[in-house]
Amino acid sequence: MCGIVGYIGEKKSTDVLVDGLSKLEYRGYDSAGVAVYNNECLDVRKKKGRLKILANSLEEQPLDGTIGIGHTRWATHGAPSDENAHPHATASGEIAVVHNGIIENYMKLKDYLGTKGYTFASQTDTEVIAHLVDYYYEGDLYNAVQEAMKRLEGSYALAVISKNHPDELIAVRKDSPLILGIGEGENFIASDIPAILAYTRNVYLLEDDEVARVRKDGIDIYDKYGIPVMREIFKVDWDVEAAEKGGYKHFMIKEIHEEPKALRDTLSPRITEENEVNLKDLEISNRRIKNIDRIVIVACGTAYHAGLIAKYAFEEKLRIPVEIDIASEYRYRNPIVNESDLYIIISQSGETADTLAAMRMAKKEGAKILAITNVVGSTVSREADYVMYTWAGPEIAVASTKAYTTQILCLYLIMLEFGKVRGSIKEDEYAALVKELKQLPAKAEEIITEDNIKHIMKSAHKHCTVADTYFLGRNLDYAVALEGSLKLKEISYIHSEAFAAGELKHGPIALIEDNTLVITIATQSKLFEKTVSNIKEVKARGAFVLAIATEHANMIKDLTDEAIFVPQTLDIFMPILSVIPTQLFAYYCSVERGIDVDKPRNLAKSVTVE
Ligand code: F6R
Q1: What are phi and psi of 395, to 5 degrees?
Q2: pTM for the full model?
């Protein structure tokens, strides 16, 4: 998952590949590599660490050749290392592949190819693709790739090179972006436009399930049936900065748009064809799961809010006591740790100083640690006993969005697995929960529509000058209210607080006066009436109430001043959906106020110091 560049032309290919990859460095990566055709051979060079390490190596020992593929890797399957870096080549060195995305059925394919005599040099899902293409190869690289695609499940953008075909590169796209750059006497492949902007502004945008033969003097695109596709040339008129953001104004809005895909990538490899949750990657035994007496969740900021959702959900469905603490508080109290505790440590970066300190304290006392993180090879992932990755891809905006929703998704998967193993979630309920969980990426997509965005933009335009905002909610809606409030204050600098709606009359209601903006999350059906009472209380004191509710709660329109509707799902899964409008609202308030959305003042993406 990260950057792909491919080149075929007259130039020294490693110069173009390294230059193109350097334009993708902003996305974050942990290793880089190239495969180049030279003298009837494929030369592969790949290095863990910064692109500079690869570039230095290529300077010291150059690889000649005018056709090649390159990659910067953001680890998913297998730690960052030279072996796991792309390109991945067959043992004979005939075919090499670079890949962005996730191959969901790679274990199955690996087993199958193993029976055909293939051996594997890495822990990646990508290596399977090189061998699969080789397996189908009968003299035509394009045909072999088409055949291999029929067996691949998941998301992938690929660039494939073969020593037997020095006149072409093959490019493939399925649920992961890939473009083809059109030059004169040279052509390019790239996962992102900035990689090739120095060479051309004319591109073909490859669509899902399309395969392209990229030659020096032309590009042919085919659909999955091998039928040629006519594609208009897309002229890029963005500057480099806009191109890095995929045409979006900021990384944050790009990352909000990526949420459905991030959810899909995190979820689908972990649900089997039989609709069972498969947490093989967690490597936790059933015995351990059955012996857990207490779960303790520790995290900071947005990750803490994800943990709060798990407290409600786990206690309801698992009937295990769950404690949750902010890492900076946890580390300076004198917590009671039991060996039968399971600690869940949540951290997008995996490097947050307070979270690391809390994790180490619990581990020292003998507790087992399960980490949820977005960064393979991060400190948290290396020190934990069990690791579950959110496959959200790099998150660049300081304000966390897609990492948060995928963290919640991982927690739901843990809930389902633990519930099944411990017998607290019965078969019928389990099936219903899995079925609904699978719908969430599509439902998230339904929220990020043009109409909804227009509505939220208008609302942000109207409210962005308020001095204070209060978020209200009960139960899981309260956890979302906390996150919505944090998002708003961190990127719009509007003072905001979140209250458990039932606490209103114990103090906060004194703050409500004419036109105070109150954002109420009202998705929990069993508490709907109670939330309605709270809405009435603040309305009676002059508040302007903006509700976030499900499509089914139509009556909310009459009770409030404004409503944003999200699709219906089970109450327990609502937070993944209801938080998205709060992210969009915060984003557009920030834009309206002219704030540097992606880098709000005083904040850093990764808080590695206390
Ligand atoms: C807010 C935000 C922060 C982080 C917090 C923990 O949008 O991003 O609150 O959630 O600093 O960071 P990680 O998850 O990297 O440990």
Answers
A1: -110, 120
A2: 0.82
